[in-house]
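Action item from last meeting closed. Structure (363 res):
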């Protein structure tokens, strides 16, 4: 074999090896779903703000001495407007970004402009609409940010646990447990009730176990969604569902309990489900509640640094930056770089106090 043929063979081998590495690493990149083990028994003492928070701001929502708000069910910020849902029956409250109250929307009744209950609440930031899903009257009612009625329409005998509004006023519905009479899972439909896309429909037909909680964070073009059937974490747009993480939750409620319609509370003791979460570009913070006797729920935080998949599990989430603490376990997603936490309400003071967390770009 002459030197020319030898060099030719070496060159071909190098090219083949390079192609192998290109294919191998390309395939690895396409698989965006990552599997992460969560064992709530392996916890550390504390998760500290300084690990992920760059700076903290504070905002007072002035309720004008009307002690109507018992708690915050949901919270959205759209540019210069803050919109919250009361945990009680006092409806939706709208504030300016400086904290002044604009409107209370609590038009209860059976009229065309009214609702019987707020089964779910979302905003349409494109049209600046407040959208209420009323399961009692099976309709969606829309108001402006100033509280003026816009329109309402029937949902064609639809039952859902939660919903949000996507492009062109399409509605993305969430029903994470099996229902014999209709679609279960996550799907998109238009204002005429016609299903346009089904994202998740693999809810087991023998599984009717489900607890309420925070299902999604709304971003600019879609939602981050935690599927409690499979402990998947996904990003959903009007066109696609991309699985980002799959969690191997060691204390997950087992199937033999989930499929029992007559399960007893004591059977759940020690098991857990996701209660709420806040997502960010570099971080994910999940709150899990653990079923127990008394107190019935115990909470643990799980903090994930996405840049290296480092995971911390703790009973405590502590502000070590200015030591202004909160007793509330839930945080609220504002955008991919900002979270919010409710502070303790002072006695004889009706105002709400928000702690705005500006997140670090990376660890």
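Sequence:
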């Amino acid at each position: 074999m002459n030197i020319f043929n030898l060099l030719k063979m070496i060159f071909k081998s190098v090219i083949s090896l390079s192609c192998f590495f290109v294919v191998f690493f390309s395939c690895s990149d396409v698989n965006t779903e990552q599997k992460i083990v969560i064992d709530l028994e392996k916890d550390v003492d504390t998760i500290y703000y300084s690990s992920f928070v760059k700076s903290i701001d504070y905002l007072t929502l002035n309720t004008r001495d009307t002690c109507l708000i018992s708690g915050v069910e949901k919270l959205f910020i759209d540019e210069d407007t803050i919109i919250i849902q009361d945990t009680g029956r006092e409806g939706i409250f709208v504030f300016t970004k400086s904290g002044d109250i604009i409107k209370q929307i609590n038009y209860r009744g059976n009229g065309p402009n009214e609702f019987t209950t707020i089964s779910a609440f979302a905003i349409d930031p494109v049209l600046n609409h407040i959208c209420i899903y009323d399961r009692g009257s099976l309709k969606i009612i829309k108001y402006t940010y100033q509280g003026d009625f816009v329109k309402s329409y029937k949902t064609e005998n639809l039952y859902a646990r939660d919903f949000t509004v996507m492009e062109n006023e399409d509605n993305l519905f969430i029903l994470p447990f099996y229902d014999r009479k209709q679609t279960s899972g996550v799907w998109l439909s238009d204002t005429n009730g016609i299903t346009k896309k089904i994202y998740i429909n693999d809810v087991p037909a023998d599984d009717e176990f489900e607890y309420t909680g925070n299902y999604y964070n709304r971003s600019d073009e879609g939602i981050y969604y935690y599927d409690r059937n499979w402990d998947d974490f996904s990003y959903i747009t009007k066109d696609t569902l991309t699985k980002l993480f799959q969690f191997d939750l060691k204390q997950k409620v087992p199937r033999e309990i989930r499929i029992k319609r007559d399960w007893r509370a004591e059977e759940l003791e020690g098991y857990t489900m996701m209660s709420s979460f806040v997502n960010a570009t570099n971080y994910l913070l999940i709150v899990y509640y653990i079923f127990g006797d008394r107190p019935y729920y115990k909470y643990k935080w799980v903090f994930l640094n996405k840049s290296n998949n480092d995971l911390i599990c703790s009973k405590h989430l502590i502000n070590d930056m200015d030591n202004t603490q909160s007793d509330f376990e839930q945080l609220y997603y504002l955008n991919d770089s900002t979270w919010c936490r409710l502070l303790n309400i002072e006695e004889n003071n009706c105002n709400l106090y928000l702690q705005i967390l500006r997140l670090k770009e990376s660890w």
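Note appended to the action item: The radius of gyration is 24 Å.
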